[in-house]
Amino acid sequence: MKGIWDFNRAVLVMNKEIGLLKTISAIQNSVRKAVMNRDWTDFDEKNEEVERLSGEFALLEDTRALLFSSLQDDAKAEKPFYALIRGLPAEQRRQLSSLYRELKMDTLKMKALNETFLAYLNEAKTMAAALPDSIEELKNSVNKKLAAFSRLNRIDIRAEPFEKTPTQKIKRFLYG
Asked: Given CB 3.0 to 4.6 Å as the disulfide criterion, which of 3, 46, 48, 116 pairs with 70?
């Protein structure tokens, strides 16, 4: 279905897409920082917000595609963006090209950051999976060198440091 070309609506939609991408990117950046700092506060809410905004972005993308489809000569063959706008007045071409370039650059930056972050998460998962085996190996290695009465029985990994006295000694009575 071929619609009517509306330059102002196309500019509005593309500006909304760029704004939404910047918002999504900012939230994703705060999630990345939180994960790196192991701060899980509001993690689920931020992810839900990104999902919601991604849905909005997909709707805007569909709207943009529908708008630009009105510039197509042939409904069967989908033309690249720059081929579509070739027939528009020079000022409109310049403005749309600028917006499209900004949209694509923001998308590429976000994609690169997400790929790097996913690689970090995969590495962290691999290390976390190997941690129990490494601890068990360490315990066995230490126990071989110790007398039977001194051997390690178990090793507990604590997420929080031990509570300490003002002189930095562990308050052992709390962990008996």
From this structure: 3
Model pLDDT for residues 25-40, shown as the tens digit of each residue: 999 888 888 888 877 7
Domain assignment present for 15: yes
Indicate whether 160 belongs to any domain. Answer: no
SS3 call for 89: coil
pLDDT above 90 as % of the chain: 49
Contact at 8 Å (CB) between 151 and 159? no
Q: How far is CA 118 from CA 9, 35, 124, in A?
A: 36, 11, 10
Residue 150 in domain:
no
In a domain, 63, yes or no: yes
Residue 98 CA to residue 93 CA, distance in Å, equals 8
Q: What is the pTM of this model?
A: 0.69
Domain of residue 121, residue span: 7-145
Q: Which residues contact 54 (CB under 8 A, 6 or more apart)?
A: 24
84-102 pLDDT, tens digit each: 899 899 999 999 999 999 9
Q: What are phi and psi of 17, to 5 degrees?
A: -60, -45
Cβ-in-10-Å burial (0-12, 13-18, 19+) of 159 comes to exposed
Alpha-carbon distances of 127 from 78, 121, 132, rounded to whole Å: 46, 10, 10
Place of tokens 């110790």: 146
Task: Report the domain count for the chain.
Answer: 1
